[in-house]
Amino acid sequence: MEEELKNNPITNSQNGVVVDDEDDDTPTLSLETLAALKEFLAEQNGPPVNAEPEEKEKEKEKKEVALVTEDWRLSQFWYDRDTAETVAHEVLTLSQPSQSQSDFRVACIACPTLYAYLKNFSHDISVQLLEYDKRFEQYGNEFTFYDYNQPEELPLEMKRAFHVVVADPPYLSKECLEKVTQTISFLTRPGESYLLLLTGEVQRDRAAELMSLRPCGFRPRHSSKLGNEFRLFTNYDPGNRLGGWEQED
Predict the structure, then answer these.
(1) C-alpha 100 chain-centroid distance
(2) Which stretches does the entry tag as region Disordered (predicted)?
(3) What is the pLDDT at residue 24?
(4) Is the pLDDT of residue 85 over 80?
(5) pTM
């Protein structure tokens, strides 16, 4: 699946000048110096209050996203930051033609890193996390328990309801991919859905056979430096994004 991202919170601190009341020679700062100091500290602690929206957004995207510790027994390997951001931005790009992001529904199958980054970038987007690990129940009604061995044991209101489905099957087996394919078919809106599959290179032929997917040039990575080569497959041509579709021989 994906990989753990360590939380790196930005800690704001207050800085000042300690004044000794018993010292008659206590130095004072000019108004110009105080203004310069205030500006410097504001730059150190984040964008100014009157910063342009684009500056604030860039600062927001610099922050790490924290997840629970990955459980290797569940084949959990969180994406590294670059992978999570790249895929999240792709999903948000796909949502742009929609009049409202809240009407544009995204399903994340077994990829909680992507869910967390999507919600960090845009609180308005509608994202549903389908995951076996019940620690993610912390996401409330945006969490749905999912066992790939029961591919269609899902709430009926989720049937054919999603514009984008991103899946990262927990195992690199034919059986697992076949069952996840059933889940994807259950979730996607007929004829108007985008599908992104993150899995091993060994699944290339199966992904093409089961879902007519093609590999992109972008290579997903995990912080745990997994030995298996991972790929990103899509059912649509991403153009210049995601490294484009890999050219067939």
Answers:
(1) 20
(2) 1-26, 42-62
(3) 46
(4) yes
(5) 0.73
